[in-house]
């Protein structure tokens, strides 16, 4: 799994994830993902490149949402594929995170 | 958790000849991942895990066997808390996913081992 971090000029941290967010994928990015979301206040996680999500990935996402939220920041998830959204909905995690259809919508929401 | 990616990889390779449609493939893959993660998370000490996949007519049967401490996921009360960001459960969602994505889930403790059987219908988009 790959993770690309971009600091946008308006103070937004854009994290682009690519690959399968399973045990292998989570193991590859979890340290960096937790480190970035431990300090950023406005975070957009672009999931366009994520084809598969398991509970270990949901755990990482929810931990990040909580960490950002505790600092009164905001984390928005964008561009979630249907199969990934199905997993989020099945376990109820979609109800406690902000999910936007596209990246532009997510950036507008968090700006 | 180090053995998990290799076991999931094996399961995915075993599934390839079946040429599953996207939804059954997602269901089986997710359940393999969650069942193995569950054993590793709840099993504490080092243990052996056996994983079997077989096709029976129009269904696929996934059997997961381990010698970890007894754990029956079919009895697990897995209502993840989703009331708010602050109180939301971080974990406890894997069994919820297995219950949803498998058509049937059976558990048996036999000969000192946990036997979990998950059954999936084949050949149809869920």
Description:
The complex is a heterodimer of chains A (111) and B (126). Chain A has a single domain, classed as STAS domain (Transcription Regulator spoIIAA). Chain A has a 5-stranded mixed beta sheet. Helix content of chain A is 43%, strand content 32%. Chain B is of the alpha+beta class and 126 residues long. In chain B, strands 1-2-4-3 form a 4-stranded antiparallel beta sheet, with helices on one face. Chain B is globular. Classes of the chains: A alpha/beta (111), B alpha+beta (126).
Short description:
The complex is a heterodimer of chains A (about 110) and B (about 130). Chain A is about 45% helix and about 30% strand. Chain A has about 110 residues and is α/β, with parallel strands linked by helices.
Defining key terms:
A: 111 residues, alpha/beta, Transcription Regulator spoIIAA, 4 helices, 43% helix, 32% strand, B: 126 residues, alpha+beta
- Spatially, the strands of the biggest sheet of chain B line up as 1-2-4-3
- Estimate the global geometry of chain A from the Cα principal axes: globular
CATH class of chain B: Alpha Beta
**Shape call of chain B:** globular
**Strand-and-helix sequence of chain A, N→C?**
EEHEHEHEH
**What is the straight-line distance between the termini of chain B?**
30 Å
